[in-house]
Amino acid sequence: MIRRIVGIETEFGITSVSAKGSRALGADEIARFLFRPIVEQFRSSNVFLGNGSRLYLDVGSHPEFATAECDGLRQLIAHDRAGEKIVDDLAVDAERTLAEQGIDAKVFLFKNNTDSAGHSYGCHENYLVDRSNVLRDVAVELLPFLVTRQLICGAGKILTEPDGSTTYCFSQRAEHMWDGVSSATTRSRPMINTRDEPHADSKRFRRMHIIVGDSNMIDATTMLKIASTRLVLELLESGVSMSHLAIANPVRAIREVSRDLGGGAEVALAGGGTATAMAIQREFLAEAEAHFARSEEAGDEREDREDYAAMLDLWRRALDAIESGDFSSIAAEIDWAAKLRLIRAYQEKGGLELGDPKLAQVDLAFHDIRQGRGIARLLEARGQLVRITSDEEIAAAAETPPQSTRAKLRGAFISAAQEAGAEFSVDWVHLKSGSGTSTVANTVALLDPFVTEDERVADLIAGFASVT
Questions:
Q1: If you write DSSP's letter for every residue of 129-157 in order, what string do you get?
Q2: What is the DSSP string of 46-107?
Q3: pLDDT value of residue 269
Q4: For residues 309 and 291, what is the distance between their CA atoms, to the nearest angstrom?
Q5: Is 58 an annotated catalytic residue?
Q6: How far is 403 from 409, CA to CA, in rounded Å?
């Protein structure tokens, strides 16, 4: 059975709107209100939760949620959506606290990637890969796919150009990438970060850390983003070479591709000549389909094979729609197409130019995660956007870790420690009972991300009984 560990990290935009007569709150202050219950419970704004995930306040007052390790597509979508629920529950609680202090303010959390000041915040994908592969070589061959992947999973954005004109683009992140592949984390913003931080047995695994993607609101888009990338990584790891598609200037190319909704942007190749974004995507799709067929013929089992097959079909249909210029067939499944349909409807109804501030507000409101308020969530509730998860699955994922990865052990350990009122500390690999002065004997390292049972963890949990 093919099992692949995947995780998503989402940074949320945050702001508040105060009623007339109430004090205005800046992002820093509203973030403190948001995280107050977390700090009161954990004495920190950087914590791991009982569902195996990590929640913390990132630079720039951005709440960030990192899913637990998942090895199934639907499982990952549920846990990604659980992150929305967890941070929005904090927002509702913050509004209640503000009201008790006489401040009438609404808290807004946006699952997007840019703010009105031009700052960008990310949606990072993490894929477990085999240590035997040279990560940088795989990353370089993956770049042409990532540069053009926005055609099928971009979030869409109304972009104001330096000359003041406006255009609608595939991607929100495209304008904010400054390198292709790099281990740097502060001096550049690469599409792929190669820092060697596997969060697992470093002799067996590495982590492919992709930071070029947009945050997505539609379940189907998120699933397509992960499934397509996972398949491309598999075919590269299997020895299929895509080096002939290496891009001469990825930073320039990703911006040009983003602006051409027909997929016809000409991308300069490192070996000479050019290829359109559409042609690059078509070639990766063909290779992914062939790899998928070969794996089935070889008897490799994949629990979510039907989901991968459905995503290959959506990938193909998305490219077909772009080539035809008729996006209606994918407007319920692909973020940028859904938002563009909405914007065009507003334009037609109100006679608005693309640069009208009302449309900028629509663009932003699409990413509001609040049920009953955010546009994407309203459209989803009306059945106008494809949904893969249910409210019940999301609620369960907010409380319960994946049962097929080591997150099961992490979640059980955290829940047991909290119930006992015991001191503990956790990271992606280590579980430690007791305070900072505890001995090494009280620490368990879970280097295998696929492990779901471990006597050492059971012993740590049993030890909490003496605390109560």
A1: EETTS-HHHHHHHHHHHHHHHHHHH---E
A2: EEE-TTS-EEEEETTTEEEEEPPPB-SHHHHHHHHHHHHHHHHHHHHHHHHHHHHTT--EEE
A3: 98
A4: 12
A5: yes
A6: 9
Within a domain: 72: no
Q: First CA to last CA across the chain, in angstroms? A: 42
**DSSP result, 336-368:** HHHHHHHHHHHHHHHT--TT-HHHHHHHHHTTB
- In one-letter notation, the amino acid at residue 317 is R
Spell out where 224-304 has E strands.
Answer: 266-268, 274-276
Rounded to whole angstroms, what are the CA distances from 246 to 140, 270, 385, 406, 431? Answer: 7, 5, 35, 36, 42
Residue 319 placed within a domain = no
CA distance 143 to 178: 13
The closest of 8, 281, 340, 312 to 156, measured between CA atoms, is 340
Q: What is the pLDDT of residue 437?
A: 53
The distance of Cα 202 from the centroid of its chain, to the nearest Å, equals 24
Region of 102 on the Ramachandran plot (φ > 0 left; ψ -120 to 50 alpha; else beta): left
Tell me the per-residue pLDDT of 411-434, one tens digit each, with 9 for 90 and over.
999 999 999 999 999 999 999 998
Q: Torsions phi, psi of 213, nearest 5?
A: -75, 155
User: Which amino acid appears at position 35 of this protein?
Assistant: F
| Cα dihedral: 325, 160, 149, 383 (round 10) | -60
Q: 450 in a domain, yes or no?
A: yes
Order of strands across the sheet that contains 424-426: 424-426, 430-433, 443-445
- Look at residue 187 in the predicted model and tell me its pLDDT: 61
Does residue 374 contact residue 365 with C-beta atoms inside 8 Å?
Answer: yes
pLDDT confidence of residue 193: 94
Q: Is the dihedral of CA 403, 451, 211, 143 positive or negative?
A: negative
Checking 161-167 for CB contacts under 8 A at 24+ apart, the result is 164/355, 165/355, 166/353, 166/354, 166/355, 167/259, 167/354
- Give the per-residue pLDDT at 60: 81
Task: Determine contact, residues 136/316, Cβ cutoff 8 Å.
Answer: no
**Catalytic entry in 28, 58, 130, 363:** 58
Q: Does residue 149 lie in a domain region?
A: no
Q: What pLDDT, on a 0 to 100 scale, did the predictor assign at position 185? A: 61
Calculate ∠ Cα 75-81-82, nearest 5°: 85
Strand ranges, E, within 228-311: 266-268, 274-276
Spans of the chain, pLDDT less than 50: 1
Tokens 């979510």: give the residue: 304
Nearest to 385, CA basis, from 174, 216, 182, 152: 216
Q: How many helices (H) and strands (E) does the chain have?
A: 13, 17
Provide the domain limits for residue 429.
406-466
| Count of domains forming the chain | 1
User: Residues in the chain, how many?
Assistant: 468
Does the model's pTM come out above 0.85? yes
State the pLDDT at residue 2. 60
